């Protein structure tokens, strides 16, 4: 792989994260060529030009089709709102580009299936933006589990909570529209599902409940609009490997800023992790003197690769954007034909099927098997 040309569609929250990753990946890892930041697309030409200058892209456009058809672009980052993912990712794949698409794949399962089919036809790398799986401490958890440090895992609980929709007076915006998806399930729960997949595999059966804490939200122009999806979801799951699991997601949890809490229980110990304290895990092992047993904290350090590519000293800590840089490096490995720690569209579609099974379970008030979806 030489002289890789990058195109970025969208420069909001995750668009900027992608841009920072593309700008930093060569400097952080040192074993990949610096990508060429070829083109940036936004909703209009003026915004695109301003963002291209800020983020280091050579050209800009207010028409995403121009970017997709640009012969100098080899890989496209899709970081737009959920409803646009399918159209853009499929167009890029059909134009012969690799695709790095933010989660979820698409609000409609049929669109996610079309994305996966387009990826399979193209032969190109098509990866999802599940950056939390890139945390070196998640990799360490996997190593502990695989090494038998807590025995046979029998139960997992995972929660994802934030409070950006906790205020009932917050204005209505696109995340409360049905066109964006089910709400907490596909906006949030896909991230815990990505961790469950990396650590234990895919979901087999589910039963779910969803809650709409605020039926309406105010409009900037006055009046209000009905909220069209659910900000809270609670799910019981059985994983394909037989492990029981509980998943809870809440976009209206006052005080929670970026919490993904994992509790993993085994026959000889437990592991705890919280994304708000993303540079540490807690390990309990039922061994040694009973009077001295307890959870011990393990801090991220250079021994937990690829932490060492960022910081040479333990305990200093990585951040959210660093995970995106790691993900970008994994994407480049995949494009080079190497094995990569990513969630490609095939497994991304399995996660999407889990979400739709949960929604079906809520509607039909019963356990749903993934074989039904």
Task: Give the topology, please.
Elements: E1 5-9, H1 13-29, E2 36-41, H2 45-55, E3 59-61, H3 64-68, E4 75-78, H4 85-94, E5 98-101, H5 109-122, E6 126-128, H6 136-146, E7 153-161, H7 184-200, E8 203-211, E9 216-218, E10 224-226, E11 232-239, E12 244-250, E13 259-266, E14 269-274, E15 280-285, E16 296-299, H8 320-335, H9 345-364, E17 368-369
Parallel strand pairs: 1-2, 1-4, 2-3, 4-5, 5-6, 7-12
Antiparallel strand pairs: 7-13, 8-11, 8-17, 9-10, 11-12, 13-14, 14-15, 15-16
Helix pairs in contact: 1-8, 4-5, 5-9, 7-9
Please explain how this structure is put together.
With 373 residues, the chain is of the alpha/beta class. It has 9 helices and 17 strands. The strands form 3 sheets. The chain has a 9-stranded mixed sheet, with helices on one face. A hairpin with a 4-residue loop joins strand 11 and strand 12. Helix 1 crosses helix 8 (320-335) and helix 5 (109-122) runs antiparallel to helix 9 (345-364). It is globular and about 65 Å long. The chain starts with a strand and ends with a strand. The mean pLDDT is 96.
